[in-house]
Every structure is written in C-alpha cells, then in structure tokens.
Amino acid sequence: EKRLLSTGALDEKFGQNGVVLSDAKIEHFEHKISIAIDKTHMYVVGNTEAKSLLPDIIDYQYGWRIEKRSLVTGELDKTFGQRGIITGIAPHGTNKPFRAEETGRMYPRDVLVYENSLFIFGIDSEHQWRVEKRKTSTGGLDASFGIGGIITGESQVAYVGSPDPIIAAIIDRGYFYIVGQKNDFDLAMLRRG
C-alpha cells in the first residue's frame, strides 16, 4: 500500500487504488520482508515458500525474491533482473556445503540502497551472515565487492543453529554495520568498509 503521511489516505495512482499485489506464484512470504527506496523505485526483498507442484511430493520449495517497482505507479521495472524480479533458492533443508560463489543460497533479512547499489543482508546455509551488492539498475551482482559481489561472514555475528542471526543492518559514511545474534543471549555488532 502507498498512503499519504498527512491523512493516511491511499494514493489511488499507485497500483490499483493504492495497493499493489505481487504477481508471485507463492503461497505466502515467509520470515522477514524488507523494503528500501531510492528517488524513483522501491526494492522489496523476502523469502518465499511454495508447495511443490508435483503431486507425488509433499514438500515445499523455499526461495528468495527481489522486486523493483516504481514509487509512483507500483509497476515492475522490466529492466531489472527478469521483468523486474530476481529470484534464488534458499538453503533450507540442504546438507550440501555452501560456497560464496553460489548466488542463490541465502535467506535475505534486510535490504538497503546506497548510491547506485543495492545491499542485501541475510544468512547462508551455514547460518553465517551474507551480504550481496547488486546494481540498482539491473540487479546484477557487483563483481568489485567481495567474491563476485558476495561476502560471507565471520562467526562473530552468527553461530550455527541461530534461527535469525542478522537482526538489522545500516550504511553510514562508507561502512555498513550489522547487528545480530551471537548466541541465545548476546548481540554482536560488526562494521565493514
């Protein structure tokens, strides 16, 4: 929904009478959904969960999704990803080793826009933090960041078995900060430049 701050009224120019419904063929967004905006667009990031379409398999397919939409109309930006959407596979239920080069193995937790870059903060299949830097124009990974646009993290901000190690992230003056769960009781903070 898009609403006016002053009155709370829906902006009828946005979507259909102020509301945009995602065209994702999923049952529901699972876990956290995050949104970031720049001057012209919004970026919506979240995990997805869908029942398998195969009748013999009682299983769920877990994944993640980024949508880039116009702030004015809510329409998908067709130049971003594939027709305004980037999707990937979440690591749920896998025992395969995780490699930083795999762009699909992530549970996103937060998204931030800084200059012409989109930073997606999440966790990988080893419950370590993961940050992807993507171009706001196309959604492509920025190869100058980490290994092929991805960095994965030290155990200071996550531990194996943590249900949700990244709680929040912020960017300030050339650095990003991650606050997360180190164990059942402690919080940990990390600064990277």
Account of the 3D structure:
- The chain has 193 residues and is an all-beta fold.
- It has strands spanning 28-37, 41-51, 60-70, 85-89, 107-114, 117-123, 129-135, 150-152, 166-172, 175-181, 187-192.
- The strands form three sheets. A four-stranded antiparallel β-sheet has the order 1-2-3-4, with no helix packed on it.
- Strand 1 and strand 2 form a beta hairpin.
- The protein starts with 27 loop residues before the first strand and ends with a strand.
How many individual β-strands?
A: 11
How are strands sequenced across the largest beta sheet?
Answer: 1-2-3-4
Percentage of residues in strands = 35-45%
Number of continuous helical runs: 0
How large is the radius of gyration? 17 Å
How would you characterize the largest beta sheet? 4 strands, antiparallel
- List the uncertain runs: 25-30, 51-60, 92-103, 158-162
Could you estimate the helical fraction of the residues in percent?
Answer: under 10%
Shape: globular
Salient structural properties:
mainly beta; 4-stranded antiparallel sheet; 11 strands; 193 residues; globular; 0% helix; single chain
Topology:
Layout: E1 28-37, E2 41-51, E3 60-70, E4 85-89, E5 107-114, E6 117-123, E7 129-135, E8 150-152, E9 166-172, E10 175-181, E11 187-192
